[in-house]
């Protein structure tokens, strides 16, 4: 059977024949392991061409094959002719599962006391029953980064699928990077400036530029010390030095200092971007920049150093009064032209479902449409080093969405969701309330 | 410095307007979304004296008309945002619970860049309203986005005035602030939804008496007129139907409470602002005749937004409530067309119904639909031209007309960036030179522990950025 599919689809079929259908047929199937065929849609692979009138075979959670005449005994078939199949969208920066109602402290677990908390893990506290999960996935987003955000070293971000009874069913990677809010020399008193001013007065700070520099220098020195200590700790542990006590904070930093994991660094202004990259160079750590407003100013540097970027929402206001009105709209196109690798994200929870529209706005202002789609599918997967997600290719995890059109358009409906090879409901709190109240006499 | 720069920019952008007001303008080769009368493909619009003089597949244009070839682009009525706080130097007077005497029109800053940025998103009219810190806020100010003009010239001539009311978490906050019990901040009544109702009822009780005193004075002609009360006067106007009541509120229970309060005093609520749970009492709102101006899909940012659903507009519209979308936000206002597009997804609006929520419906709610809100002969030539259908997320605004004048032109904007960059550089250079001439300030003379430990050389010229901001 597998061979027949392979013959039909020699271009696509990369799987070893050991992955035999006979085995599946012989074994008594539990429903969830039943092969699934999405029959006859236009398949937007993202990594390659769009394939008209193509079916997708899903088995054991993976995309097994693509083809026009796929036949598998015992498979469940879904007729999706006239519809479109895309890879599930990936939102590369959110706080899903960590925040329920942003204004209510009790429902928010994004940050803790202290400035250096590498040991904190989003993975441990993501709430699989969050109402946001079904709401966000109903708009075609199947995977998100869920990320802590406090202090200087905020903790570890998790990459999760938006379906599962427990976090372990959801987690794609328990820890995909260390979130570091790189110290900034830019002092801004925006909304809430009153409180900031009050704190400054209480602490006897003046808020001037040289003070910002002093604070910056102190924080960077502290950050460097943490990394130094982590390096020594890693060496000592590797050498099995007997008197080295286990240190949870330093242990958490080991993958970062060993270059096994990137620092997910939030920065904003151009100066901060340059400082962060210089720091990373010296410390020999891998870096992904998160929401760098001024990335366009440092595009050349980012390209030269091959630094990937996770952009914040495209639909946002320019930072400065005299910036072009469309600066955040056209930044993705500028980075694309400079050859910088980037993903687009929303941040937070409330607007996480609108990820596709952030990408569309970038396309309206000069980013090629296929690149806009990649910025919310393939590129975030690549940036996080998650080879199994982001495109429709045999062997990859079956995170798929079925739509009646371009998912980046608001009018498009997401008809079906497949996460980890299983169909997941598009129902959610909003649809339920709609059904309830539209029926009110 | 900032003011100087802003003025320079105003002058620069102010030159966008092309034709003189007298010269007729013909927009041809346009896909016209009239909102009131469907779509006209490849049609034309004639503008004369700032008004729409003709619209159709073809129109008779005088020979001296300035011709704008839209080249198949999409023309829709200028977007109307019935809930905005931009360009107001103050949003809330939070020290008192009833601040009906405050007037937003008196604190309009015409130079705030927010207005130009929204213009670039197709917005031509907005109601700038008082914030929601008080059960009774202040008097509103309807603006046309005539960028470059004075505050007075921005004001929408003859727009009926409104008064803002607010329910729920925001007006409660000063009575029960976070950290309640530990804080020494003086509390301000009300601190509960019950108190909010009481404050509004109390105020209208006084206003009714005030109105009665005046009526009696006018009827009997007593020697001494009642003392004029600037707090009660706007409320009396609401009671007389001369001023609209706009009510900020989220939860269905408090919206219903306010409907009953309005019935008790015999006035109408013009529309609810937010009304995120309005869908739960759509029947009652429809019966009262109130409208709702809501978000497309905001939710979960506070407890009273927990039951907000993106189908709110759909349910309300189905039950006969006049629905509009609003921004309440300088960013959201820049893409209200995309917010309207979400209604195609959440509740299957038609294109016209969706577009009406950001044009004709808010115009009706603000009582300015005789002037704006649709592309019809006789209405103001307030138009937004998009390069694609405005309900597509790939669309962007290329031109915006107000009163037949171009106030935003993307091509011009792009062209002017170079000159603008040059001007900014010159201002920075000037500032830098001045800074170099000045003796070092105490701040600058701080101990030299300030060198960043990254080893990078200090770059003093860059600090001009801080000087300007």
What does this structure look like?
The complex is a heterodimer of chains A (441) and B (469). Chain A has helices at 2-8, 21-26, 122-125, 132-137, 167-170, 193-202, 209-238, 248-257, 270-283, 299-305, 327-338, 355-364, 369-374, 378-383, 429-438, and strands at 36-44, 50-59, 62-67, 76-79, 84-87, 89-94, 141-146, 153-161, 171-181, 263-266, 287-290, 309-311, 342-344, 400-403, 414-419, 422-424. Chain A is an alpha/beta fold. In chain A, α7 crosses α8 and α11 (327-338) crosses α12 (355-364). By secondary structure, chain B is α/β, with parallel strands linked by helices. Chain B has 14 helices and 17 strands. In chain B, α5 runs parallel beside α7 (252-265).
What is this structure's SSE topology?
The complex is a heterodimer of chains A (441) and B (469).
Chain A: H1 2-8, H2 21-26, E1 36-44, E2 50-59, E3 62-67, E4 76-79, E5 84-87, E6 89-94, H3 122-125, H4 132-137, E7 141-146, E8 153-161, H5 167-170, E9 171-181, H6 193-202, H7 209-238, H8 248-257, E10 263-266, H9 270-283, E11 287-290, H10 299-305, E12 309-311, H11 327-338, E13 342-344, H12 355-364, H13 369-374, H14 378-383, E14 400-403, E15 414-419, E16 422-424, H15 429-438
Parallel strand pairs in A: 1-4, 1-5, 6-7, 9-10, 10-11, 11-12, 12-13
Antiparallel strand pairs in A: 1-2, 2-3, 5-14, 7-8, 8-9, 14-15, 15-16
Helix pairs in contact in A: 7-8, 11-12
Chain B: H1 2-14, E1 25-33, E2 39-48, E3 51-56, E4 66-69, E5 74-77, E6 79-84, H2 113-119, E7 123-128, E8 136-139, E9 141-144, H3 151-154, E10 162-166, H4 169-172, H5 193-220, H6 232-239, E11 244-249, H7 252-265, E12 271-274, H8 282-288, E13 291-294, H9 312-318, E14 323-325, H10 336-345, H11 351-356, H12 360-365, E15 383-386, E16 397-402, E17 405-409, H13 410-437, H14 464-468
Parallel strand pairs in B: 1-4, 1-5, 6-7, 10-11, 11-12, 12-13, 13-14
Antiparallel strand pairs in B: 1-2, 2-3, 5-15, 7-9, 8-10, 15-16, 16-17
Helix pairs in contact in B: 1-13, 5-6, 5-7
